[in-house]
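Following up on my earlier thread - several people asked me to post the actual chain instead of describing it. Fair enough. Here it is, all 201 residues.
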Amino acid sequence: MIQFLLNVYFNSSQSTLKYLKNTEVDLNNVLIITGNFNIRNCLWDPCFPFYSSYKNILFDIADFFQLEISKPIENFPTRYSNNDQDSNSVLDLFFLHLKSIEFNIHHIYPDWRLFSDHTPISVTISIIEEQVQLLKYVLIKNSKEEDQFITELKNSIKNLKTNSILNINILEETVISFAVNINDLWYKHSKKVNITRHSKT
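Reply from S.P.:
Thanks for posting it. Predicted structure:
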């Protein structure tokens, strides 16, 4: 399953926000949306007392991807002003699957920004150990083994005695017997191969 991270920058006119809202984005399995959203709002910026009209549009987009806004471990500005007339602000946000056990919070690192006016932010994604199958049974397409398997499978279906199925117990026994027969046919004609990095999908 392919998963996506959307890293976005919203300019002052919010053209990207409007595009995402008005365009049917053909992306599934979006894992994270993050970036400089250029939207000040009291919901994520405790030093800003006002409400932005763009907030609902932004949350509609996040909801479309089944994401929610993440709250940082500690509240810090994510953008530091270069002059005394403008206040520091929170413009960089994370939208995550908050109910996920792998990750649900992010960090802001004001001490790491050096000469930049934006602070680095991060989220830790745990890599879950996955059991990778190294052997599998295959039937080569258009091979003699495939032809034999199909022929015997057809015969197995033709030989099913459905007239004797008089109750649920006999039906279950017939289905189980048929499934076992198919399984035996598969291992009889298929070939065991090793899976390597060079194997075809």
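Residues 135-194 form one domain. That should answer part of your original question.
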